């Protein structure tokens, strides 16, 4: 595998960094795990006696993707016992920013190179519209194990359906993911820090899940400012500002949505006049302003860089994906990190938090032959069994079914599980565009946000005008929207 820590265009998450943290949470669980129910008699199955090789395409250096393959020998044991056939899995991978192109290049030729794909949620439209992936409605109707009670409507909207708002199902949740706030619990419990904060603000530092659940950005800013101590090479906060993939976009959407803004009208495809408002411009300025609590060089921080500065003890807190919890909480940091809901925006009863959804669905290659399609469906039936979902969670994964997440012991399996459930509830997290033109729209947006936070552009409203005009043109050209850019767009630039 290529060392993704040295790439510049993809997800720069060093594989050994991710896997080292993940191992602490059970990736080494024996493949002979006792949860497989041994059967005394095999069931009739059309593949009995056959040997099949399958291939999964997933995200390089991303623990949730590798978990699906690391657990595949359990599936092989399961079908050997239950159905009498042999199966093995190969795994190919690419960074986030390259994975869609790798999948598309194969699927456009109707290849069976990748039988099952771990897709980013925003790619559902681009994969579904050309007919490259299997529409799952009929499959679900025929398989009771796939008729799950999902934890929230947000799960369905993010990982399963396209077009938005319909009941056409193209994906099934592989890894649920939400934004969480990782904080140094040991710093919060330092008596000297508490004494200094109490003296300055007349109140103690927040220390519990409930304290942070009620915290607003204005209140949290005092905490971040307190721990910003450059003379000690410590800073109070970190979030993603990088131009790579969707890093800055997901981080800024947290501000935009939580402060009441919208990015578009999904029904009409209108962007201009919705994204580029004065209020959203104020949110973009607020997003940039938090750089004063971040370490130098933070405009280049993405997922991997964020993990590094947190685990190296440079920052008190970081808004980061729950999926990288195993890497954020290393052996050295066990018991020293608290994972809590990120702050609300606003004040009083109107304060709210609406943060970006992450995570990936499984999608099935529509060009699989009959044999490989049957194995793919068998795999999905197995993946969503309660014992499999629980094993996934114990290894550091984030399942999305209500049965698993409602277990009395679920919150205790991983340090981030309580916050994962909390942020997965409807109204606290959301996804953005499943439109087939996702990648083009994202590229424009990342260009604009990066230009603003790095100082190449100084006017947040002008930046949003540029993005809205460009995106409106993209959707109008593609036919997604009948709304053309306004005359103002002819003179708009960064």
Could you give a short description of this structure?
Pfam families: SBP_bac_1. With 494 residues, this protein is of the alpha/beta class.
Give an account of the 3D structure.
Its main location: periplasm. InterPro entries: Bact_solute-bd_prot1, SBP, TAT_signal. With about 500 residues, the protein is of the alpha/beta class. It folds into three domains: about 250 residues, Periplasmic binding protein-like II (D-Maltodextrin-Binding Protein, domain 2, 3-Layer(aba) Sandwich); about 140 residues, Periplasmic binding protein-like II (D-Maltodextrin-Binding Protein, domain 2); about 100 residues, no CATH class. Helix content is about 40%, strand content about 10%. Helix 12 crosses helix 13 and helix 12 packs across helix 20. The protein is globular. The two termini are about 40 Å apart.
As a percent range, the share of helical residues equals: 25-40%
Output the CATH class name of the largest domain: Alpha Beta
Radius of gyration: 23 Å
- Name the average pLDDT: 92
Subcellular location: Periplasm
Organism: Aureimonas endophytica
Protein name: ABC transporter substrate-binding protein
Keywords: Periplasm, Signal, Transport
Brief descriptors of the model:
494 residues; alpha/beta; D-Maltodextrin-Binding Protein, domain 2; 3 domains; 21 helices; SBP; signal; periplasm
């Amino acid at each position: 595998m290529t060392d993704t820590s040295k790439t510049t265009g993809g997800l720069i998450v060093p594989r050994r960094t991710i896997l080292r943290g993940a191992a602490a949470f059970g990736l080494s669980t024996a493949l002979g795990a006792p949860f497989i129910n041994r059967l005394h008699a095999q069931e009739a199955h059309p593949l009995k006696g056959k040997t099949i090789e399958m291939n999964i395409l997933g995200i390089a250096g991303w623990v949730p993707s590798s978990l699906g393959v690391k657990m595949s020998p359990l599936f092989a044991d399961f079908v050997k016992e239950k159905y009498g056939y042999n199966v093995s899995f190969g795994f190919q991978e690419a960074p986030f920013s390259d994975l869609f192109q790798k999948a598309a290049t194969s699927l456009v030729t109707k290849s069976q190179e990748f039988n099952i794909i771990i897709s980013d949620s925003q790619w559902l439209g681009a994969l579904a519209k050309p007919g490259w992936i299997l529409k799952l409605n009929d499959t679900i109707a025929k398989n009771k194990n796939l008729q799950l009670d999902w934890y929230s409507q947000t799960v369905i909207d993010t990982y399963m359906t396209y077009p938005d708002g319909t009941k056409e199902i193209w994906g099934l949740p592989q890894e649920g993911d939400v934004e969480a706030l990782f904080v140094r619990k040991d710093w919060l419990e330092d008596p000297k820090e508490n004494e200094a904060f109490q003296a300055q603000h007349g109140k103690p530092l927040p220390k519990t899940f409930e304290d942070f659940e009620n915290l607003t950005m204005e209140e949290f800013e005092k905490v971040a400012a307190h721990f910003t101590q450059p003379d000690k090479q410590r800073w109070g906060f970190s979030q993603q500002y990088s131009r790579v993939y969707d890093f800055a976009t997901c981080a800024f959407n947290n501000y935009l949505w939580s402060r009441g803004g919208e990015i578009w009208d999904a029904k009409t495809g209108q962007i201009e006049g919705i994204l580029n408002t004065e209020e959203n411009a104020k949110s973009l300025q607020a997003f940039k302003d938090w750089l004063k609590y971040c370490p130098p060089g933070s405009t280049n921080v993405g997922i991997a860089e964020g993990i590094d500065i947190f685990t190296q003890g440079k920052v008190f807190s970081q808004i980061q994906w729950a999926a990288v919890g195993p890497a954020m909480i290393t052996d050295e940091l066990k018991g020293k990190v608290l994972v809590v809901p990120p702050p609300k925006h606003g004040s009083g009863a109107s304060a709210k938090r609406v943060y970006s959804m992450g995570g990936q669905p499984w999608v099935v290659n529509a060009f699989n032959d009959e044999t490989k399609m049957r194995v793919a469906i068998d795999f999905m039936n197995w993946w969503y069994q309660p014992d499999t979902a629980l094993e996934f969670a114990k290894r550091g994964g984030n399942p999305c079914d209500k049965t698993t997440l409602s277990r009395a012991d679920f919150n205790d399996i991983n340090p981030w599980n309580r916050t994962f459930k909390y942020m997965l509830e409807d109204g606290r997290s959301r996804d953005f565009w499943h439109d087939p033109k996702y990648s083009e729209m994202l590229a424009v947006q990342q260009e604009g946000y990066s230009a603003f936070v790095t100082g190449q552009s100084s006017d947040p409203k002008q930046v949003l005008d540029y993005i809205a005009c460009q995106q409106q043109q993209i959707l109008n050209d593609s036919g997604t929207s009948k709304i053309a850019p306004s005359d103002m767009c002819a003179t708009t630039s960064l």
